[in-house]
Input
Amino acid sequence: MEAITEFVGLINGFVWGTPMLVMILGVGLFLSLGLRLMPILKLGTGFKLLWSGRIPDKDKNVKGDVSPFNALMTSLSATIGTGNIAGVATAIFVGGPGALFWMWCTALVGMATKYSEAVLAVKFREVDNQGNHVGGPMYYIKNGLGKKWAWLGTLFAVFGSLAGFGIGNTVQANSVAAALSSNFGVPAWVSGVVMMLLVGAVLMGGIKRIAEVAGKLVPFMTIFYITAGLGVLVVHIQDVPAAFALIIHSAFNPVAAQGGFAGAAVWAAIRFGVARGVFSNEAGLGSAPIAHAAAQTNNPVAQGLVAMLGTFIDTIVVCSITGLAIVVSGSWTSGENGAALTSYAFSHALPLGNYIVAIALSIFAFTTIIGWSFYSEKCVQYLFGIKAVKPFRLLWTIAVPLGAVSSLDFIWLLADTLNAMMAIPNLIALALLSPVVFGLTREYFIKKRADEAAKAQS
Output
């Protein structure tokens, strides 16, 4: 086992090394420039489309299975999880406050990546033999790049189906069990069994039930957590300007050891800021477009504009709240790490702050389990057909309590490695299919301007 762990560790160091970080940021920057910074400039348009897409469309000519709003909530259910609470804290613990700056940079170019993923997912989606819309990297590789590239789509599906059991299931279940045990004294096996029953009940309803649950839970919990985080910032309001100055300074200058902080080089801030940023918002991994492919829309660009909000909400909003709370409170020098560091920051500013973090972590992790179940399910379906869906759902449900009561150091490492390996075929496809994204985007906005001009004249 030690030899296997060491081998996976070597692969992990390579796939999350400089080439991968350059590739993720490079593709994101290439797409941002190709789109002329449209995802940032049209952020308001995305929010308008999100608001208008709350209600399922009754028009039978509009293709898709769930509302654009619920497609985004399903995507956010998988992305807003332990990465927003524990991942941000780990990035700051290892890379210093400057890591948060590099998370922001990752998110700004990641919006273009997430937009492009969703555009391609809707453009090249298919309808399975049960009438459901399916899509994602494996489909836009197969249908967009042609048969000679189909092996790349298969590779993505293999990595996606396996990675889900780690990062999207057992790791999340373990985080919930640990949070409930340390804060409320709930035995890990009890948490595992309860989660198993809840996950099983949601999964058996397929994408529509997953989307309905996500559409209700995700907005509520996100607002709850943001409100609590803003409470921490209000308590330390006089330290907020200095915190921003420290974050920006630390992004370009080494941070000396102080308190329980061991010190960090600039490279550590960049590496862990980018890696944790991608881990949190999943831009470039290719997971989110699997959810957006099910959206009720006939226009890929419209769903892309909604999809890019996932990266903005996840990293620019939620991760920033966590990171700023840790920096303004001075907790980053406490020596704590992971969720314990975030809990430390909240508990020293708010009454019951540690319980707030524990509840938020538990619900975020639970929604990640149901969101990622859909991703892995569609990867399995792509590989083995519709007949594999029910056995997959059963296996996924059983894995939840196993994750809750297990030691998962190796699973964390393996899942993190598989996540990076998912990104490789997806980023190649995004680069090769970028002309399709640019063309569809140009057509959409030309038509929109023409419609607005005609409306103004009438």
Q: What stands out?
A: Strands lie at 126-127, 133-134.
